[in-house]
Amino acid sequence: MTSDVSGPAPASSRAGAAAPAIVATGLSKAFGKKVALDGVSLTVPRGSVFALLGPNGSGKTTLVQVLSTLRLPSAGSAEVLGHDLRTAPAEVRAGIGVTGQFSAVDSMLTGLENLLLMAKLYHLARDEGEARARSLLKRFDLSEAWSRPPSTYSGGMRRRLDIAMTLMGDPALIFLDEPTTGLDPRSRQTMWQIVREFVAEGVTVFLTTQYLQEADELADQIALLDHGRVVAHGTPAELKQHAPGAHITLRFATSAGLHAAARSVPGSTPDADAFTLRCPMAADGGAVKRVLDRVPDGLPIEDITVHTPDLDDVFFALSGTTPQTRTEDTARTGDHR
Hints:
2 domains; six-stranded mixed beta sheet; five-stranded mixed beta sheet; ATP-binding; nucleotide-binding; ATP binding; AAA+_ATPase; ABC_transporter-like_CS
């Protein structure tokens, strides 16, 4: 089965009519009898943030490994920055940066030494490497920690250093594999701002995450991966429109008012203890008015709460899983992310 993710370039794209950063067709990857990717096709416009959502074991990390040439696909093809994964892996690697789930920082070196090591790996001249390293230390607010080993850094500081190391090669495309896992809310917000700055400079970001809010905040396009297949794709707004769960909750002053309204609003669910009525509604602009028009005149409504679907609703509706069932499934089958 081939799952296709495509569409027009988002408004934030600075590439105009330039070729996409990634075009993948029918990518599959198996580990023995375990299928980690099952016919994934996707297109990532340049200068955008593409978020890949999915529970543990869905194939997110495997897809990043394939697209970044760390693993060969079992079937299918892909071009990254215009280069074929199979025939030009060196050219692909020259244009990308990868920050994995686990830090690549060497705790025995200082922050500056970690960056200078990356400069050597990228074959930068000594002066150029040191200048770029110090510029990145300043950009990532690590100037005062340059001479300290990362073992003395906070989690957020280590993650910023990890991404700074990725940027030493000045990549056009950055893979960020669950970059904010384990970070506190303030560090997560800092990381989001860094991603926004990348895109403003024309860099393409391929982001995997389990944080639905993160994808909602950052992504131009989102694909939901489950059991190795893309089960949904689109902008955050488009995905929310197709998720169930939109409803309006009305709170009444009296029990009599509650039950009178319940008789008048089809499909509504009363909560006698809270004097509230949950009313399903369609995901469009006139939905709230249509619900209220069904409430008999003269019934005092004390409060109105509107719930529109969010990416949590999308995630659980389309992946057909809950955190508990996914944890149990991963424990049984192994986690091929």
